[in-house]
Design brief:
The complex is a heterodimer. By secondary structure, chain A is an alpha/beta fold. Helix content of chain A is 37%, strand content 23%. Chain A has six helices and seven strands. Chain B has three helices and 30 strands. The longest helix of chain B has 14 residues. Classes of the chains: A alpha/beta, B mainly beta.
Chain lengths: 164, 467
């Protein structure tokens, strides 16, 4: 068996073996409003929903209205929503105008060098991450947008809130 | 085999005191460029990313490997080693870094996660990125910041396996900083020294950002510090709201500002298109000489609708005048989108371009949902010929985990591309993608970065694992 085929097999087994280790670590980024902000300052003590998005991403625009609704419905019940924008400098002037029609009320942090994105190994746009703020354990990762995503996230939030 | 095993064993004791995270991408291809023999050329690309983190410390590594029938194109080597210390205000980074100065007029290094690059000359596959091998030290408390960067940016059209001296022909040293001024404005700047085989050159940059009545105005100017021909880049952007409408206005003026092998990336002021045919027709910035503007507005329509309109325009004074303009409009609702574009791009050789199309999502309850995407395009070429392109994609998302799709493209001259995809995912921890058929290549732009994708005919299996 060629070297790389063996390496692929080892990595596949390693990947299956260690799926449950995801843990959120703190990060600090500039917000779209200007000041720096950190995850630990914004996460609250309930659940956190991170939404990785970009202005060039068609499915991201499909997901944002649902995220806004989840924020409206569960914000008072302990859900903190943080948008992580991964546009590069090319689209920096478009971020706030893009969001304006959606009525986004949650903080947007800017990750143009993909620091947080790389840390969470995010490769699909959008990717939504549900985290338990007390333990920082990653509960669910939703990679990509499919119709019905909002309902799945809502179900997972309700289950997580019931358990707490 | 020894290197990855040592890497894994080396990480094991560290896991006791911190956390190891990682990802792996493996892609097997059997096939070739359409019409190129052998038709059953097989190759395997592997990429392993491992990161250890403990408090403010982080170590990231990447191994990449490529196996192909041609021995000269094979490689297996570490392509990233990065150490980071990031506390509240202080950040120290060593190794292969991603650094951006201002809006990228002077320096921008990046990675497009998940993208595997291959070009027709080298036929070697590798992660598409432009990192900087060096060091960065910075202090930033939100009111002021200062950062020193030194390193050698990657010339990313050269694949791993070639000598580092060829892949990193440029050296840069940058000192950059900013301070918060009255009225919440910020003022900053940078000095950069660039050296390559032709010698050393100095550059200076200044920027200012001012919030005015709900609007943000940003301006950046950079130039080469020499008494010869002027080389400069000027960018101006303003964004804000007119009632419920979000608006951005940007201007650019770049002259003789491609630095080194291209380690800077000034904003091109061209809409980044998610629509396949328009993405392939993206205007590519020519920093030798380009001036122009971009205006974009986002208008809410009802509860879930949005109307976007964009006008981009540019002019290049090269050996003759080249013009580019594009007017784009899109209506987006949660379940469907429609767009139309009219444009001309002399540099691409596309005149009187007309593109339109749309996408609809049809929910099917517990059976998932169907997504249909149709696009058509027509433009004239410099020689007077007319080109027509058609694009159709169908995807059926089945029960969260499965997606079955098909993409068909047709172009003038009877050329056709037909491919089928099957994807399976387990949460986001594992994803399997199978492609079979023919895939159309051409220019592609992702995350603001444009590159060339090769045509492909054959089958491809991609496994992505994150842990």
């Amino acid at each position: 068996m060629p070297v790389n085929h063996r390496l692929l097999l080892i990595l596949l087994l390693l990947g299956i073996h260690t799926l449950a280790t995801a843990q959120m670590s703190d990060f600090r980024l500039r917000s779209s409003a200007g000041p720096m902000a950190s995850y630990s300052e914004l996460k609250g003590d309930g659940l956190v929903l991170l939404d990785f998005w970009a202005t060039w991403c068609l499915p991201c625009a499909e997901a944002i209205p649902g995220i806004v609704e989840l924020h409206q419905e569960f914000g008072a019940k302990g859900l903190s929503v943080i948008g992580i924008n991964v546009d590069g400098p090319r689209n920096a002037a478009k971020i706030r105008p893009f969001l304006r029609p959606f009525g986004v009320r949650y903080p947007i942090l800017l990750d143009p060098d993909y620091t947080v994105m790389t840390d969470l190994r995010v490769e699909a746009m959008p990717t939504v991450v549900l985290i338990d703020a007390k333990t920082d354990k990653v509960l669910h990762i939703y990679a990509g947008y499919q119709p019905g995503l909002e309902a799945r996230i809502k179900g997972d939030i309700e289950r997580a809130l019931r358990v707490r | 085999m020894r290197v990855p095993v040592v890497l894994l064993l080396g990480f094991w004791p560290a896991a006791l005191a911190g956390q190891i995270v990682g990802s792996h991408v493996g892609e097997y291809q059997i096939g070739n460029l359409p019409g190129v023999r052998p038709k059953d050329r097989s190759s395997v690309y592997n990429q392993l990313n491992l990161a250890w983190r403990q408090g403010p410390f982080r170590i990231e590594t990447r191994m990449e490997g490529y196996e192909s029938p041609e021995s000269s194109r094979r490689y297996l080597e570490p392509t990233r080693v990065r150490f980071t210390y990031a506390a509240d205000r202080v950040a120290v980074r060593l190794g292969h870094l991603n650094e951006t100065v201002g809006r990228g007029l002077l320096l921008r290094t990046y990675e497009i996660p998940g993208t595997i690059y291959e070009d027709a000359a080298y036929r070697t596959r590798y992660a598409f990125q432009r990192d900087l091998f060096g060091a960065s030290v910075g202090v930033d408390d939100g009111r002021y910041g200062i950062r020193a960067i030194t390193g050698r940016p990657l010339w990313n059209i050269l694949p791993p396996g070639l000598p580092e001296s060829q892949r990193r022909p440029d050296g840069v040293e940058v000192l950059t900083g900013y301070v918060t001024a009255p009225f919440n404005s910020t003022v900053g700047g940078a000095f950069m020294r660039h050296n390559d085989a032709r010698g050393a050159r100095g550059f200076a940059m200044g920027h200012i950002e001012i919030p005015v009545s709900g609007w943000t105005v940003y301006s950046e100017y950079a130039r080469r510090m020499s008494s010869g021909d002027p080389a400069y880049a000027a960018y101006f952007g303003a964004d804000g709201a007119l009632g419920p409408v979000g608006v951005s206005v940007e201007f650019k003026r770049y002259h003789d500002f491609r630095l080194g092998a291209g380690f800077n990336d000034p904003p091109p002021l061209v809409r980044e298109q998610p629509w396949a045919l328009l993405n392939r027709s993206t205007h590519v910035l020519e920093t030798t000489d380009e001036r122009g503007f971009q205006v974009e507005a986002h208008v809410p329509i009802g509860r879930s609708g949005k109307f976007t309109v964009n006008r981009s325009q540019a002019r290049n004074e090269l050996f003759r005048t080249f013009r580019y303009h594009s007017t784009f409009a899109e209506f987006a609702h949660r379940r469907f989108k429609l767009f139309a574009e009219i444009g001309t791009d002399d540099l691409l050789g596309e005149t009187q371009r007309r593109t339109f199309g749309g996408q609809a999502q049809l929910p099917a309850g517990s059976m998932g949902g169907l997504t249909v995407n149709l696009q058509a395009q027509r433009y004239g070429q410099s020689g007077g010929d007319e080109v027509r392109n058609g694009y159709a994609a169908l995807a059926w998302n089945l029960a969260e985990a499965w997606t079955i799709g098909s993409t068909a493209e047709a172009a003038t001259g009877g050329r056709t591309w037909l491919g089928g995809t099957l994807s399976w995912r387990s949460q986001a921890s594992m994803r399997l993608d199978l492609f079979a058929g023919t895939r159309r290549g051409g220019p592609a732009c992702t995350s603001g970065i444009c590159y060339e994708v090769l045509d492909f005919e054959g089958a491809e299996l991609k496994l992505t694992t994150r842990f």
